[in-house]
Amino acid sequence: MHYQGSCHCGDITFEADGEIDHAIECNCSYCSRKGTLLWFVPRINFKLKSGEDKATVYKFNKHRIEHRFCTTCGCQPFAFGTDPAGNEIAAINVRCVDGVDLATLKRHQYDGRSA
């Protein structure tokens, strides 16, 4: 399926292709504070439509994930990184994807606090 999303103010917009059949709920210090629910897709399936100049990068811990957030509204719609095999991925915050029913979305817990 083809999805569209944005930050809260709409300065950053994106598209992604894939199937949202679940979301990862990470308990690391960052994700738990932000409340993100993540959907991972190959980086090639993600397209930033607008807002490259409005996105700021935040890295912490091992600096492997580039958390992107809007400099205007502070919302974090996505992040870039690599999976364990070294493939480039986009971690999309499904809370920022249009039309996703969060109440019906299956959630998988990830212990990022211990990773």
Q: Can you tag this structure with a few keywords?
A:
globular; mainly beta; 5% helix; single chain; Metal Binding Protein, Guanine Nucleotide Exchange Factor, Chain A; 115 residues; 3-stranded antiparallel β-sheet; 5-stranded antiparallel β-sheet; 1 helix
Task: Describe what this molecule looks like in 3D.
The chain has a single domain, classed as Beta Complex (Metal Binding Protein, Guanine Nucleotide Exchange Factor, Chain A), CATH 2.170.150.70. With 115 residues, the chain is mainly beta. It starts with a strand and ends in a 5-residue tail after the last strand. The radius of gyration is 13 Å and the shape is globular. The chain has one helix at residues 29-34, and strands spanning 2-6, 13-17, 23-26, 38-42, 46-50, 55-58, 66-70, 78-82, 88-93, 107-110. The chain has 1 helix and 10 strands.
